[in-house]
Design a protein that fits this description.
The complex is a heterodimer. By secondary structure, chain A is of the alpha/beta class. Chain A has helices at about 75-85, 105-115, 140-145, 160-175, 185-190, 195-200, 210-225, 240-250, 285-300, 335-340, 350-355, 355-365, and strands at about 5, 10-15, 20, 25, 30-35, 45-50, 55, 60-65, 90-95, 120-125, 125, 150, 175-180, 195, 205, 230, 255-260, 305, 380-390, 405-415, 420-425. The radius of gyration of chain A is 21 Å and the shape is globular. The chains are: A alpha/beta, B alpha/beta.
Chain lengths: ~425, ~325
């Protein structure tokens, strides 16, 4: 196994409170030293990171890799390569595949393919219910044994609050973390855009704020009842953030993340029936965007994720309500986090924390940090590289991004996964 | 992404597509009404044709059933001497795998010059306009809950014919605003043409959230809402609204929001009553009112042809400056 030293870089490791010029020495797949070269460490390669930022590899709590079942959209190989190019070294992939991740065989398949590709750690999220139908429990103990640490029903509703209670208790029995998409599907009622002035004018069926807040209230109550750690995936409203804040103050074991795009786009971007902005949960209003930003700044929302949903071009080529929702997000995760710094929302170490140790904390894993002995997952990026996003130039198979033409800051120069260089540019 | 308003005008600011009233100027809307006025004579002549669109092929592309709108578009096209293709596309045909874009390309290959589109999805006409070949014009004949701009313009035309002007009028629109593309387009047209006040009258379940952002004053009481208005527009109530828990019953709706002679007394004596059709007699409007002296419902249908002729000829840039009357 190769030994690599990354020298002269500005090392930002929020988990350990480090932000200074410091050399990093990797070997045996782990962090072997910080600062002076450890005894006996003779690097096979030395990376001069002068002018660059060295931080832990990014951890993404939500990415759709589309395999198995939708290989026309993307594959594990294509998307893990895109993740590596984006500095992401660990990602959770959604159980919404075909077949769904409700048996150990599918978990095994995904893990094997990811290992073969070898670009980043893929953590398959198991199904909470069989087939994601929301009625019967999935064999969660078996999923756990096969390597799942998280279970979720994706964006599919559970049949009842009773099923939800039982699912939480059963998942809790095996120490699984539960990801919930907070949405009351009845209130959503087939909506495809935020219920607000834009959807009203465009005649798009609206998704009210209450579709999220009703579910958050219910889920917090169930979380309190069952004492099982619930993580809200992808909040979209300012009210939900306030509810979460209150619950956390009351010591309820709830956490949350937000998709990076929710911190920049609003319902106004949907105007003109822009299907690239057909997202789920929908883009809401400016007050929501600001509420989410405040939640991320305070740490109420501990993680920012890509909510990566690559699509083939045809999926977005239809009248707005008939298009598939979601955007290709891996490669904008880091640049958008940096943009929060530029827009004065938070300092750099905090922004890095939300894409490294923040999500790692949700997973309860010792990753997203550069502690001695930690897995040698590192992202080295040029913070001053400005670039214009050209969708065709994305490495992901999905070129569906509403950020086309945006000037972004931050280019990943090196990604290291388990101490191996998996991306270099 | 191109704003709809830019999408529908060419580089000289002339109408290229007619997708929504949103973003169009008062001058342009007035031009449509004036042009329609010049065509209104044509429909009353013995030879009911003008050669403005001779040699042009117009495809009526209806993804949703419609009799009246399609027929008036067809008549309008024929009176402009265009060749008309009527294409009904059941949703099942598109679920066979052919996308909307495929359908469009196939028709373009048949050298169609204009698409008149009706589709159940909001934004469908914009989508087609954005992807159509540069020489093709698209007219929105109703997309989802979004817009039905020719219907709104024929309503404006009717009001102007019956009252003489639109500026400074008070207009009440009664019924299912939430699901109505007609109401959305009417509101935009009325406000652009300078109406003094646009009111919407319905129970809250049938009003969009934050309805005021559309530029209207909401009322929940019919009698109060139609007081002092010059025009009352009744909207059709779809039967499925009862199943969706929007309303308890047709009976209760008619009792509270149905327009009867008795109710109409709250408005002043020369208030006109309109309905974009098809009507549910005894649900939103009583027969005495629908067939009564204040009703201009049949005139709306007749004027629909002239207004559609105007829009079609303007979008094809034919007869600019030619008076057809």
């Amino acid at each position: 196994m190769t030994r690599i030293s990354i020298i002269n870089g500005r090392l930002v490791d929020p988990a350990n409170g480090i932000d200074k010029t410091l050399d990093l020495h990797l070997g045996q797949g782990v962090v072997q030293g910080l600062g002076p070269t450890p005894k006996g460490h003779t690097p096979d390669r030395t990376i001069d990171a002068r002018g660059l930022i060295v931080c832990p590899g990014l951890v993404d709590l939500s990415a759709h890799l589309r395999e198995p079942g939708a290989e026309h959209k993307a594959t594990i190989a294509s998307e893990t390569a895109a993740a590596a190019a984006a500095g992401i070294t660990t990602l959770c992939c959604s159980p919404e595949t075909d077949p769904v991740v409700d048996t150990p065989a599918v978990v095994e398949l995904i893990r094997r393919k990811a290992k073969h590709s070898g670009r980043c750690m893929v953590l398959p999220v198991g199904a909470l219910t069989r087939g994601l139908y929301g009625e019967e429990l999935a064999e969660m103990a078996a999923l756990k044994a096969a390597g799942c640490q998280v279970v979720s029903n994706g964006s599919h509703p559970l049949k009842s609050t009773l099923v939800q209670r039982r699912a939480l208790e059963y998942a809790g029995t095996y120490g699984l973390t539960v990801f919930l998409r907070a949405e009351d599907s009845a209130l959503r009622d087939g909506g495809c855009a935020h219920e607000g002035p834009v959807s009203v004018r465009l005649g798009l069926a609206g998704i009210p704020e209450a579709a999220e807040t009703v579910a958050v209230a219910r889920d917090i109550a169930l979380c309190e009842q069952t004492s099982v750690h619930v993580h809200f995936r992808g909040l979209s409203t300012a009210k939900a953030v306030r509810m979460l804040e209150r619950a956390r103050k009351d010591r309820v074991a709830v956490s949350a993340d937000v998709a990076a795009h929710q911190l920049f786009l609003t319902e106004l971007d949907v105007d003109g029936f822009d299907s690239r902005c057909h997202l789920d949960p929908p883009l809401r209003n400016l007050a929501d965007r600001d509420g989410l930003r405040a939640g991320v700044a305070k740490g109420t929302i501990g993680a920012i994720c890509s909510d990566h949903q690559p699509h083939e071009p045809d999926a977005k080529e239809a009248p707005f309500p008939a298009t598939a929702s979601g955007m290709s997000g891996l490669e904008t995760l880091l640049p958008l986090a940096l943009r929060l710094v530029d827009e004065g929302v938070m300092a750099l170490p905090q922004a890095i924390a939300r894409v490294t140790c923040g999500p790692a904390h949700v997973l309860g894993m010792p990753i997203g940090r550069l502690s001695l002995g930690a897995r040698a997952d590192v992202c080295v990026f040029d913070p001053e590289a400005h670039w214009i996003l050209d969708p065709q130039a994305l490495r992901s198979r999905g070129h569906n991004t509403p950020f086309a033409g945006w000037e972004l800051r931050g280019r990943v120069r090196y990604s290291l996964f388990e101490g191996r260089l998996v991306h270099e540019a | 992404m191109t704003h709809p308003a830019e999408l529908q005008l060419d580089e000289r600011g002339r109408l290229k597509h007619f997708l929504t009233i949103d973003g169009l100027s008062r001058e342009l809307l007035t031009e449509i009404l004036d042009k329609a006025e010049s065509f209104a004579g044509v429909t009353e002549r013995t030879v009911k044709k003008v050669p403005l669109l001779r040699g042009k092929v117009i495809a009526n592309l209806f993804f949703e059933p419609s009799t009246r709108t399609r027929t008036t578009f067809e008549l309008a096209a024929k009176r402009l001497s265009a060749d008309v293709l009527n294409i009904h596309i059941s949703t099942s045909a598109t679920t066979k795998g052919e996308t909307l874009l495929d359908t469009l390309r196939n028709l373009e290959a048949m050298h169609v010059d204009m698409f008149v589109v009706r589709h159940a999805d909001s934004g469908a006409a914009h989508f087609i306009a954005r992807h159509a070949a540069p020489h093709v014009s698209v007219i929105n004949a109703g997309d989802g809950r979004h817009a039905h701009p020719t219907q709104a313009m024929l309503d404006m035309f009717t009001i102007r014919r019956k009252i003489g002007h639109i500026a400074d009028l008070r207009v009440a629109i009664v019924g299912d605003i939430l699901h109505s593309r007609v109401a959305r387009s009417q509101i935009l047209a009325l406000n652009t043409l300078g109406a003094a006040e646009v009111r919407v009258i319905a129970p809250r379940t049938l009003l969009p959230a934050g309805v005021r952002t559309l530029g209207v004053h909401p009322f929940n009481d019919l009698t109060e809402g139609i007081r002092d208005v010059d025009v009352i527009i009744m909207l059709r109530l779809q039967k499925e609204r009862m199943r969706g828990a929007f309303l308890p019953s047709e009976h209760e709706y008619f009792r509270l929001f149905g327009l009867t002679e008795e109710r109409l007394a709250a408005a002043h004596a020369d208030t006109i009553v309109m309905h974009p059709g098809p009507m549910n007699r005894g649900v939103e409007v009583s027969s005495e009112v629908a067939d009564g002296p204040r009703s201009v419902i049949l005139a709306q249908v007749t004027f629909g042809i002239a207004v559609r002729m105007a829009v079609m000829s303007m979008a094809m840039h034919t007869g600019d400056g030619v008076r057809a009357g």
